[in-house]
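Annotated sample (chain length 271).
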Amino acid sequence: MSQVATLLAIADAEVGTHEDYSNGHWNNKQKYSGEVPGLEWSDYQAWCQTFQSWIFRQAGLADLAPVTASCWTAVNWFKQRGRFSEYPAVGAQVFFGSGGASHVGVVASYDADYVYTVEGNTNTNGSAEGDGVYRRKRARRDDYLFGYGYPQFAEGSVSADPNAAQFGFRTKATGDVTDVGGEAPQPKPEFEPFPGAAFFKNNPNSPIVTAMGKRLAAEGCSAYSEGPGPRWTDADKRSYAKWQRKLGFAGTDADGWPGKTSWDKLRVPKV
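Output written by the structure step:
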């Protein structure tokens, strides 16, 4: 599964998630701030860019995008690296408002007239101060749309930029699978199902173990001195125990042997 596909699957799986509601109104309290190290302070504040930081981290791609709660800071992060364009690309961050400082989403697809996005802190009207994670359809030539930040994906991506090659991307051709016409895409998440407790206790040598280890490292739960690799080791077990404790488990529920509940929350990309 490519980096772009993993990122978009994680983003799309969050569609329908809402911030908290209290005293008759939405209050900007959400899970994403607390799950991005360094952004805990941003809870109860506008969280569209925090959501972007979260999905890149969940995909194990935190180095490819800015870790920030500020759209303005994110725009400048991409510009300083020469990775900002006025044309859409699949997997790019799309910025809105003056200087791109008002709002942000991730591009799931585009056609000649629209970009199709997944956005946090919006609503059915496309507000920059909404209540949850939504799929949105945005007019490419709307004055409100400022531009696009291009992450440096290992496999590149498809872009409408005539000079896409300078970013390591390719220009989308007619009939490309990302040409969705007028329909917003609804990618389905592809994560490894829990292989069962016995799988890990039988000393597996599997790419699933490597993928699991990478996700544990992305979650800040690494106990690896090298790796991770395909062979299940004590380092995998210690790392997984850290993940279980992070989820709030204790005692025998945090012994490092994977269980279905903690595995499903880890979201290991399908190999």
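Annotation: The two ends are 7 Å apart (CA to CA).
Annotation: Confidence is low (pLDDT under 50) at residues 174-188.
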